[in-house]
Amino acid sequence: MRRFACRLLDTGPVVVLAVIAGAGSFTHIRDTAADHGQTGWMSWAVAVCIDLTCVMAARERQRDKTTGRARQSRITWPVLVLSGGIVLSLAANLAQAGPSVWGWITAATPAAAFLIAVSMLERRTAARPEPSPAAVPELTPVLELDVERQDEPEDGPAPALLDYARRVADEHHAKHGRPITRDALRARLGVSNQLASDLLHTLRTA
C-alpha cells in the first residue's frame, strides 16, 4: 500500500499535467480545424488524431529504445511521426494566439506542456536495466572442457576423462546390450577420433 502511494505521488502530477495540457492543446486544434472548414465531429476527429499520434509515436520511440532498434539510426519512423505531430499541434495553437509575442507564448504553452508530460511518462516507463543473466547450467559435463586440449598426455588420457568415458560406456552397454563403439563414444564425449580410440582401447584393456 505504501509503495502504491509513493508511486501515485510520484506519477500523479505528471499524469494530471498531461491531461490538462492535452485538453488545452486539443481545444486549440479543434478550434483551428473548425475555423478552416472541418466543422462538427470532424474538428474533434482532427484534434484526436493529432494528439493520439504524438502519444503513439512517443510510445513507439520508447519501444525502439527497449529493443535496441533506435541504435541503428537516430532518425526513425516514430521520430518523424512525433515531429510531424508536434509541428501540427504547435501550428494549431499559434493559429489561435493573439498577434503578439506573449499571445504566441501562452497559446503554445498547452502543446509544449503536453509534449513535456508525454516525454516524462515515456522516460519513467522506459525499460529498467536488465539484470545480469544468471549463470546457465552447463548442459555437457564439465569434464568436456578438458577435451578442447588436443594434446594428449604422454601417459594416456586424463583419469577424470577416463572415468567419465567408463561411465558412458557402461550406460551404453546396459541400455543397448552391446559394447559402445568408437563413433558413439566420440559423439557422447565430443572428442576427436584419435582420443576416442585411445579411450576405448584403455577401457577394453583395463
TrEMBL record:
It comes from the Bacteria. The keyword Transmembrane helix applies. Signal peptide: none annotated. Pfam families: DUF2637. The chain crosses the membrane at residues 12-29, 41-58, 79-95, 101-121. InterPro entries: DUF2637 (IPR021235). Keywords: Membrane, Transmembrane, Transmembrane helix. This is DUF2637 domain-containing protein.
